[in-house]
Amino acid sequence: MLHFFDPRTDLDSEIDYGTPPATFDPTPDAELISLSIDGNEVRVPEGTSVMHAAAMAGINIPKLCATDSLEAFGSCRICLVQIEGRRGFPASCTTPAEAGMEVKTQNDKIGKLRRNVMELYISDHPLDCLTCPANGDCELQDMAGAVGLRNVRYTGQSAIPSHTHLDEKKDTSNPYFTFDASKCIVCNRCVRACEETQGTFALTISSRGFESKVSPGQDDAFMDSDCVSCGACVQACPTATLMETSIIDKGQPEHSVITTCAYCGVGCAFKADMKGDEVIRMTPWKGGKANRGHSCVKGRFAFGYATHQDRITSPMVRDSIDQPWRKVSFEEAFDVAATRIKGIQEKYGRNSVGGITSSRCTNEETYLVQKLVRAAFGNNNVDTCARVCHSPTGFGLKTTLGESAGTQTFDSVEKTDVIMVIGANPTDAHPVFGSRMKKRIREGAKLIVVDPRSIDLVNGPHVNADYHLQLMPGTNVAFVNAMAHVIVNEGLEAADFIAERCETEAFHEWKNFISDERHSPENTEQFTGIPAAYIRGAARLYATGGNGSIYYGLGVTEHSQGSSTVMGIANLAMLTGNVGRDGVGVNPLRGQNNVQGSCDMGSFPHELPGYRHISGQAVRDLFEDAWKVKLDPEPGYRITNMLDAAVEGSYKGLYVQGEDIAQSDPNTKHVEAALRNMECLIVQDIFLNETAKFAHVFLPGTSFLEKNGTFTNAERRISPVRKVMPPMPGLEDWQVTLGLSKALGYEMHYEHPSEIMAEIAALTPTFSNVTYERLDEEGSLQWPCNDETPYGTPIMHVDGFVRGKGFFALTEYVPTEEKVTRRFPLLLTTGRILSQYNVGAQTRRTENSSWHGEDTLEIHPQDAEDRGINTGDLVSLASRAGDTHLRALVSDRMQPGVVYTTFHHPETGANVITTDNSDWATNCPEYKVTAVQVDKLISETASSEWQNQFAEFTEQQIAFIDK
Amino acid sequence: MTDANTQGAGQAAQASNGQGLANQAEIESVVGRILVELKDIPGPLLPILHEVQHQLGYVPDSSLPIIGKALNISRAEVHGVVTFYHHFSSKPRGRHIIEVCRAESCQSMGGRDLEAHAKSALGLDWYQTTMDKEITLEPVFCLGNCACSPAIRVGDEVYGRMDAEQFDEIVDELRTVPLAFSANPAEVK
Prior knowledge:
- Chain A is α/β, with parallel strands linked by helices and 963 residues long.
- Chain A is 29% helix and 16% strand.
- In chain A, the strands form ten sheets. Chain A has a seven-stranded mixed sheet with strand order 14-13-28-27-26-15-16, with helices on one face. In chain A, strands 32-36-33-35-34-37 form a six-stranded mixed barrel. In chain A, strands 21-18-17-22-23 form a five-stranded parallel sheet.
- Chain B is built from seven helices and four strands; from the N terminus they run αααααβαβββα.
- Chain A binds chain B through residues 200-208, 215-219, 225-226, 459-464, and chain B through 61, 64, 68-69, 72-77, 79-80, 83-84, 86.
């Protein structure tokens, strides 16, 4: 294979090159230019800075304001060089390399200049290096050494006493990092990181000249500014000015391990910075291909839950849920669990038990749980929490494109021209990708936001949606149909693409369907509430604006017509030819870290790993042969079936790994009734979560820091999770599943998760070349990864669709049965917030609660005024399923008639309100549409009946733990 | 915005120019009106800040988020610009601003004596305002009037070859309010 220079892969992520690599087209034809630096010949792509070129040759030019995550700035004047034939001393960071250039980076003259500049910096910098938290990791100290600074002539009392910054006060308002202005050299790196990397623009330099200083907001404290605590500024700071509080407390780490974040579906690569077996800091890894060196407040800082005192590290059993827990050995817990499961199966039949895998656990663990259910339980009653989030994505994309996964890599956003975000809130739920998206928008990409709420992307610093289509919850299908109708009727479709790559007959049938007047934006306006002209404008923009990409989230899937919307989105992409290359595609933003992986691993009752139907004889043969067991050809229960059967009394045993259905699944009262009916509920988790309060056997789990494995993110990227500390319970999660399986009489033999991956690879064609060795070499791999694509597949459907020809599915709009009535006149939609993650079990046990201590109900000023509600008032929120009490936040982000809340805190009981409506194809619950009423509460202390019961039950269950 | 609102805002602006802190409703209406007028011109931020200072006498901190939102920039960015230029004040100042040049030429032509005189005559230090909220004293670095050093500026008017006596005369004039009779009380200063 022809090898050519590619700045994305050929740079060492451990080196700071000072400026970003040149945008460079890595083809064999692209020319490199040649220049001489200190007599060394260097060949670099055009547009590379002299500083970057020198670093590539191993020549380190001293620098302070430059770092390769930020554009060159040219302010510190330390990186001055001399260039043959040019006057003066240009800054190497801002000077582009040119062919034939002869650069001198060191001589006496340059040395003297650098020393003088450094002397000025140090004249206003404390000389407490030995006791400084940055000692051992300070670029200012390093550069003072590099330039040979030996004395400072300007110290002592200045003529004007206020004219030093040595007495500046520390800002400790942020719980995770400290801002010590006395150490600041005003290099602007934090301000630029906040702007360029994160895109929040919370920082600035206030004032000018010697008075200049870093100002969060308007000279506010960090916590009072717009800061989202992503840590980019801390990462960029070359001194101790912005420093993690954990480092201030404990000192520099002594080793680091690269691992993958266990929060959202972005799957950021982090370096776990360690002192012994204690994680003292998580720093985003520049070599991470999903995050490219960026992070958010969750992954960067909220890892303290792993060692929280609430962790339960010993197995526990009890006979019924009104008894205290008894601590036992793992062996005893396995025996108790196995005996009971077997007893239930004897009494109620083989199908009376099942398991639920988790999107938070590794691929290997998930694979083992479904294997245990299919092989040891002898049925297919296995489902995953992806059921309640992205199951429609799997179904919809498989039907239309042929593979149950997003089509793109995250890098693809850098080439897109029109971004359409539907039912997703990337800046809160996928913050690192949200930042990458905002960067592209600042570069000029157009933006269409389709959301009932005015999310941050609609209007914020340097981001402004060209169209915000503020639809009513539950009308997504009417919206996508209207978009397609406009594109077809105005002749904007990519006719050649469709003719070549899609099923002709299906397309014509679909075209007849969609051309009908009932799908016109003028007609759908009555359902969606979106003015027809906006739809027409947005459709024209998406169809003709260049590379069009669609990013969607749970606002698409968690509806009674979730699968239809996903298919409608795929239709739009195929219709406009926006599939199969950089910058386009259909991109589901996965909620949890391993939603993609848990689906890939055969967690659904009807599918074996690799999305192959259980009824297929050939596939079953393959697995039966490998697992040495007979498989049931009939699909098993979905989560909803399990719960219904449990309430009805025919389903009695459940093994739940790392999932909290009592909090995250809709209609909490129904879930609780089902759980109370269980005779053996086995919960494996790091905390006594809401579900575990109904359990009979508790198996202590391990956090992502305590085990080896892999996660697969939203772009199909398989990334390694590495053990950095010993498992607190003594066993890693996969070992616990092995133990349970053995007790059930089905022994599995693995010494290490890599052996589990080897089995997955052997049985799953899309994973056949994935091994731990390859993951170590490449950092991560995007499936399909097999003999045809040994380096993985960043972009799918390049030469043709996986299913052969693309399929246009008919998507008739059927309004949801959940309608507003006089009794429940408002629509509730639920979502997430930046600082908290999912059910909050992890983030609530960290300082992240400083930002979001309780769930609030967002309500439009008009609806609030009708009810006499002000921000901060306690209100009741009631639906036909139940009611709960929480505080109101009056906000013009909402549209009239729609209210919004989050479900991060169990005592809020947001899912007490949600109903058991679900997607027609996949049973994904309709979390996003519930008819509700909101009333102001007079009494400040009143909790709803459910909340009182919840508080009492929680208190009782906590008391049952023998600490 | 209705006509009645616009009118109200205009009066509020007039009343508050150089008259201390404006209340939030006033700030919102004045800034809102300025934004409608100026936010779509190329490079709108500085003209907007000038206009806000002109109408309210200063650039209130609470106006920055409003300006930022309208221009699609953060309040921090607006703050960076406001604090960069000494011309902008984030606190209310006197009705008249007297700026005394402290650049090299003026200093060499007796500027330091003039500074001392200005301070003692007005009983102010730099950036302070007289009790009657009439005059604020500020230093400035070069008015470009070096040939006629030392120089001061009052509002948009630059005065050269300044000495203590002339300074006092100017201050007297600034403090003298002509009596006038008019049917419209707003015209009476």
